[in-house]
Write a structure and sequence with these properties.
This protein is of the alpha/beta class. It has 14 helices and 15 strands. It has a seven-stranded parallel β-sheet, sandwiched between helices. Helix 7 packs across helix 8 and helix 9 runs parallel beside helix 10.
Length: 372
């Protein structure tokens, strides 16, 4: 079996010969550290992006089978994005920057975490119609040429072929900010619904265009990031009523093209959103962050049954510890793999405290334990 066949077998509860060993990429600072230590070339570290040639070269170094979030699809974001501008420089080296989403962020020297948001251009209908709506018109420019054709090489055909859908609310949250999004729900719900519909229509038109030319995909994939450690950033009631129908429309189109697996990437504690995604056709949760809330596929499977699949749930912090910690983590994963419909994967990008040799050790041990 190849990794495409293995992945589909696992997600459809069919026999398979071994578990694919998958990952979710790396922080840039992690790769730079490993390059400085002499483990990988600096140009490889600089070039890595999910699923690209540099990413696959790193797969060969570590022994990974593939990056779960490797995908191709249309662009439902701002086109063109805002031009990045430095608006103000602080004495301590910090800079206020207008980013590609129209958010004004504070970038601090040597900081590697997500920057603080200071302000946002999108606050009202005037900004929406003048600055954003013109950047959200559909055209064929949104569809890369290669997406319209099935995988050509044998190497590409041996890996799962993932169709990128995009986001229905996460990108909007990036444009508006969590606080402004919360106020807009109450103060101008009509505008918010118009923004949501505009983005949803773009994702749907992208899917229609791609699938009419090429429907040789194994699963679809969303990015949403709409939760934090204590739960969703919006109320589940709002999410179900205002976002759910657009998920349903997309998954019905995917199903009509024989694509019955849909994966979704959201950080944070997603427990209250899982049933909404499931009822609207999203059936693979990713990356199942272990975090402080101990997320796991096990309680979801007990609650929702085999319709719910998962990828992730491997606690990546063990990469900063030792071999014994990795051995314990793999033992913890074994009964979860036995549930079926589940592929372990580091529960987010590998952080700079991760040790190169421990990542190698993890891959070797996973192959030994799961039939590699």
């Amino acid at each position: 079996m190849n990794n495409r066949e293995r992945t589909l077998a696992i997600m459809n509860y069919q026999p398979y010969d071994r578990l694919p060993i998958v990952h979710f990429g790396y922080w840039l600072q992690t790769l730079e550290k490993w390059a400085d230590e002499g483990h990988i070339p600096h140009d490889l570290a600089a070039a890595q992006n999910d699923g690209n040639a540099a990413d696959q070269a790193l797969d060969a170094i570590f022994g990974w089978d593939f990056n779960w979030s490797r995908s191709k699809g249309g662009n439902a974001n701002l086109l063109p994005p805002f031009e990045r501008k430095v608006l103000k420089e602080h004495e301590d080296g910090g800079r206020e920057v207008l980013n590609e989403d129209g958010a004004i962020i504070l970038e601090k020297p040597d900081a590697i975490s997500i920057p603080s948001e200071i302000d946002h251009l999108l606050k009202d209908r005037h900004a929406w119609e003048e600055l954003y709506l013109p950047k959200l018109q559909w055209s064929l420019e949104r569809i890369p040429h290669e997406v319209m054709h099935p995988p050509a090489s044998e190497a590409d055909r041996s890996l799962p072929n993932c169709l990128w859908v995009g986001s229905l609310l996460g990108t909007i949250r990036n444009w508006i900010g969590v606080v402004n999004l919360s106020y807009m729900m109450a103060d101008d719900p009509e505008l918010l619904e118009e923004i949501i519909q505009t983005v949803a229509d773009l994702t749907y038109q992208n899917l229609q265009t791609i699938l009419s030319a090429n429907d040789d995909f194994d699963y679809a994939h969303y990015w949403e990031d709409i939760s934090f450690k204590n739960g969703p950033l919006v109320s589940p009631r709002f999410f179900r009523s205002k976002i759910g129908p657009y998920y349903k429309r997309n998954t019905e189109l995917l199903n009509a093209h024989n694509i019955h697996l849909t994966s979704l990437d959201s950080d944070g504690n997603i427990d209250k959103l899982v049933p909404i995604w499931l009822e609207n056709g999203v059936n693979i949760m990713f990356p199942i962050e272990v975090g402080t809330w101990q997320a796991s596929i096990a309680p979801w499977r007990a609650q929702f049954g085999r319709e719910l699949r998962g990828v992730g749930g491997m606690n990546k912090v063990v990469f900063s510890h030792d071999r014994a910690a990795i051995d314990r983590e793999i033992e913890r994963l074994k009964p979860l793999v036995d549930l079926g419909g589940y592929i372990p994967c580091p529960d987010h990008r590998i952080a700079p405290d991760g040790k190169f040799e421990l990542v190698q050790y993890y891959v070797e041990r996973m192959r030994k334990e799961f039939g590699g």
